[in-house]
Predict the 3D structure of the following.
Amino acid sequence: MQVYDTMGRIDLEQPIAPGETFTFEIAWRFNIPPFGADRLGMDDVEDGTVFEIAQWFPAVAVYDDVHGWNTDGYLGQGEFYTNFGEYEVRITAPRSHIVVSSGLLQNADEVLTPEAHERYARALASDETVAIRSAEEVGDASSWPEGEGPMTWNFSARQVRTFAWASSEAFIWDAAGVDIPGSALTPDERVFVQATYPKEGIGTWADAVQMARHSIAFNSQMWSPYPYPVAINVNGTVGGMEYPGIVFCGARRSARSLYGVTDHEFGHTWFPMLVNTDERRHAWMDEGFNTFINIYTRSDYWESEADGGRGSARSIANRMRSDKQQPMMSFPDQIWRGRLGYLAYGKPAAALWQLREVVLGHERFDRAFHTYIERWAFKHPQPSDFFRTMEDVAGADLSWFWRGWFYSTATLDQAVVGVEHNEEKGWVFVDIENRRDMVMPVSFEVEYDDGSVEVRWLPVEVWATTNAWTAGWNPKGRRVVRVTLDPEGMLPDMDEANNEWVAE
Ligand SMILES: [Zn+2]
């Protein structure tokens, strides 16, 4: 075997023919970094240490029909491109520890006391949060099974793109169940939602199970059923990181930040855990799609944000004004420092929001996006697979949209430049310009001299061959006194000063 940085190459004696298998064993060691590793680490708290462990074993690179072997090394900003796998994992930990993971616990009767085991079973059936190990029991030997020495926790996970786990003697352990009809890998369609946290998290984390229940139930209903039997939220040093069936979430201070991180990390269940994107190259298909679905969960959870995401989508206009623009299609390790949040999260989320709220409408967008998830669940889509499915199912040529939002650094400025009444013809003509290189459909509100108001609309196709379009119609004897572009404030228009025309 040859090792190049974090990649290793093993040449087999015989090639593996299609349909054949090859079995091999690897012995390896993994030193847990004490802190600072974004995606895993250790947190020293009053009652012990919280271990959050991920990216801890060698994995086979993805072989696909686009690139062949995907051997791009890990460089920090770009995440991972991984295979689906079946995992049988045995974790041996001190007897005082609670261990949770991407998998379903297989030997609860061995590693839990009879009382904890009874609570464990009751929690799954309960919609209300049940404490499997309460704050008072942490550190109390009666809360772990009698005997000496460490215990081995057995877990099983199917169809997961990696396997993460957490362990601590400091864990308080809460749980409840939630019905997820159609959940692919959960035969009884009831997902076991859990939260483990040290006493430093008490307060905000008392709600963690219910926050997770909301997030996964809402997304299951809106997009596609949560696929795994477990959904576990762990509080430790990692600020926020997603893994199949388990997420790490550092937030302790406020309910708002805890919900935000919980919802975002569980949102990754759909992208990239279920629809297995190549995050190493296309962060926007993972972070961006997730940030998009977070708009709707958040507005459902917090009444104060019940604007359907208008605020967050509109605020992207400010980022589009800043310098150092790059196309969203840039690979994440090649995005300017400090711009990943904009290009991999905010901008793609705003783009999908525009596509749903402005361009296609809910019915058309949702059918297409559902089909994208359905076609590519447990597979590896490329950007073109997404573009193609959206166009195919929505029944629309969206090439102009992908070009403006995804492949370029284009910005939008629609302007209303004049209104003429042609008395002879009895028509009114409104001159509208597209002053930058992004195109979007136009909606404008017209106010007449009799006080009546109407909203008119131009399809994006008006910009196919010109940057100046004249909209004409018969105003039925009324005179136009005001024209306002984008009256609902939906578009990231770079210059709002030219969005209104008022009669002298
Ligand atoms: Zn994320």
Q: What stands out?
A: DSSP finds twelve helices and 24 strands in the chain.
